[in-house]
Amino acid sequence: MSAFAQPAPRGGGVARRARVWGPAAVVFALGMVAWQWLLPALGVERYLLPPLSDVLQAFWDNRSELLRGGWITFQEAVGGFVLGCSIAFLFALVLARWRPLGSALMPYMIAANAVPIVAFAPITNAWFGTLSPWSKVVIAAVLCFFPVLVNSLRGLTSVRPESLELMRSYAAPQRVVFARVRIPNSLPFVFSALKLASVLAMIGAVVGDYFGGSTEALGVQIVSAVSLAQYETAWAAILVASLLGIAFYAVVALAERLVLGWHPSIRAGVE
User: Fold this and answer.
1) Which residue from 35, 67, 172, 264 could staple onto 167, CB 3.0 to 4.6 Å apart?
2) Other CB atoms closer than 10 Å to residue 133's CB: what's the count?
3) CA distance to 10, 182, 250, 267, per residue, from 17 (Å)
4) 20 CB neighbour count, 10 Å cutoff
């Protein structure tokens, strides 16, 4: 080793993370300041957006009910996430194996995805019952299904021809091609869709609660608080839902980093 060689600075990763997250932290701080002081100064009415301190106080006063409702809604979101993403990935495997079938079914899947979820929610309540959590699970699953299907199918089919030719030269059966080439190639696409689906699942569970459910569920609490002009409580419930959605996204992102540590995009993010 040359006498002039210097070890790489250890603080490079910290500096890079500061550059990446610094602007977001500044925007977050400015947003909180505007919420607390600027918007009330501009005359924004309480029913539109109460001051942040009032929302936090409402959360503290009703923390037991809000956290219990958040847990109920979060379980519905996770159930819908697992159900919708699992079925979507299985469908993607089938459509990638038999491409003409995918071409025949995709227009109908697009049309089904275009149906507003608020129109679908009353139907699931009729199927499973208004108080059943399964009606909310199904709504969350429907929201998760299409993005996971499309991204998984793209990952399974956008394989380098050289890799497929190599597997053919070994006379590998299709199950081996999928296990060794197509599925590993699809994982970055799948995890991108899973991160989006984690947010959509939480939205679906909350929206499903708007049309009826357990009186402790988060969406029901939001509707009830607004009907009673308790806007601070309603925004506190929305804040709980947002934090749960962020936590859900973070868990999926962590799983992506653990599973895809070998992938160049993940390695570049770690370094």
Assistant:
1) 172
2) 21
3) 13, 33, 16, 14
4) 10
CA distance 73 to 209: 8
Q: 67: which residues sit within 8 A by CB, 6+ positions away? A: 240
12 pLDDT more than 80: no
Assess whether pLDDT exceeds 80 at residue 27: yes
- Neighbouring C-beta atoms of residue 59, cutoff 10 Å: 18
* pLDDT digit string, tens, across residues 112-154: 777 777 778 888 888 888 788 898 999 999 999 999 999 999 9
Tally the C-alpha atoms within 13 A of residue 101's C-alpha that lie toward its C-beta. 9
What does the alpha-carbon distance between residue 218 and residue 67 come to, in Å, rounded to a whole number?
9
User: Using an 8 Å Cβ cutoff, are 124 and 135 in contact?
Assistant: yes
257 and 270 Cβ atoms separated by less than 8 Å:
yes
Q: Distance of CA 219 to CAs 39, 200, 211, 225, 234, Å? A: 26, 15, 9, 10, 9
pTM given for the model = 0.84
Contact 209, 73 (CB under 8 A): yes
**CB-based burial of residue 172 (10 Å sphere; 0-12 exposed, 13-18 middle, 19+ buried)?**
middle
58-79 pLDDT, tens digit each: 999 999 999 999 999 999 999 9
